[in-house]
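Lab manual, section 2.4: Encoding a predicted structure.

Procedure: take the sequence of the chain (441 residues), apply the prediction step described in section 2.3, and record the output as structure tokens. A sample record is shown.
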Amino acid sequence: MSAAARIADLMERAGVRRVFCVPGESYLPLLNELGARPSIQVVTNRHESSSSFMAEAYAKAGGGVGVCMASRAPGALNLAIGLHTAMQDATPVVALVGQVPTTVRDRHAFQEVDLARALAPVVKWAGEAGRADRAVEYVARAFSVALSGRAGPTAVVLPEDVLHGEAGSAEPELPALCRPGAAPAAPESVEQALQWLTRAARPVVVAGRGVLDSQATELLVALAEKMALPVFAAWRRMDVFPNEHPCYAGSMGLAASPQVVQPLLEADVLLAVGTQWNEITSLRYRAPRGRFIHVHPDPGLLAETPSWLPAREALPVVADPGRFLQALAQAWERDGSRVGLPPDRRDWVAQCHRRYLAYSQPRAVAGDGFVHPEGVMRQLAALLPPETAIVSDAGNFTSWYLRFYRFRKPHTHFAPISGAMGYGLPAAIGVALADRDTGRW
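Recorded output:
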């Protein structure tokens, strides 16, 4: 069998259902193989950035690993912006890109670029399969790396003659297409976190993508209620916590209200669960100022953060966010609930929620011959059911829905934290296809 056939077999066995691409001659052998397999639909686009945006949104909406393909340098480099979006958003995406034949490499061949090197800065891993008998190995590795640790995009460069070449008779190894669960949080870390949180006068929680991936929203809601914790949504993760819940305090963003996010600067303990602590989430490196508990399954990410934190003391916890929250809830029931909470903690939570409500209540704005964005958001909030998926592009206009739309259910908000413009329409198609494939509608 050819390398292209082996790769298609691997994708089929791995459960890949859709592939997004602009067809190109350099990977026609793989396209032909995919076209012969009814279980995989090839979704064709008119620009490669749409292919990578669709793949990213499809994966984010629960469709599995997003797969996109492109041909040679112009097409492959057009994928880069969507791959960067997946990198910033921790979304598992695999890019398979065609390349000039190995026989003309380094001879200024038509559309020749060292694509593995060119894409490396915006993906977790990139490699070029230089031999047909190893092509499947590279693709299997790309799937595994995309899902390991903090998920993200990978890229495999496939020269045209490699795809045509004989791959041998060995069955390709099927990668583990599930996110490997991080070890549960160390008991001493849970106990330390519980001690800090129960003694805090003004604690704050910041919840991110990891809570959504762990299906832990309900667990976080219950814990916030019991322990009197105000919860902020990380940058463009507003669906991580029901916005109308009394413990919801608002979200971070480029245009976030100073009044709403002030509690992040006042907090004596800040618990960040399942989120990368970056420029936006840290209010441009001003928070946290007190104690900082950072829970994330990727130890490398946790190791990077303390070097620039203004926090007085930090507690990094390597753990799956859902398993950590469950352990913290159990520790609270066992020990913390007997100790009780400092006075006025519940008043602190109520104050945070009131600030959010005052800022986020849209008015019925009317005018002579014009439509006001605030009035539009008021109408959308009244008309759309809670399970509606909101897919947003990037730009200043997003401040209207980020301020006035209240998300009520998890997995209903899709937006690029990278700020990539052009995301909205292709991402909406990707989300709709994932919803169809997973049975949401």
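Check your result against the sample. DSSP finds 18 helices and 14 strands in the chain.
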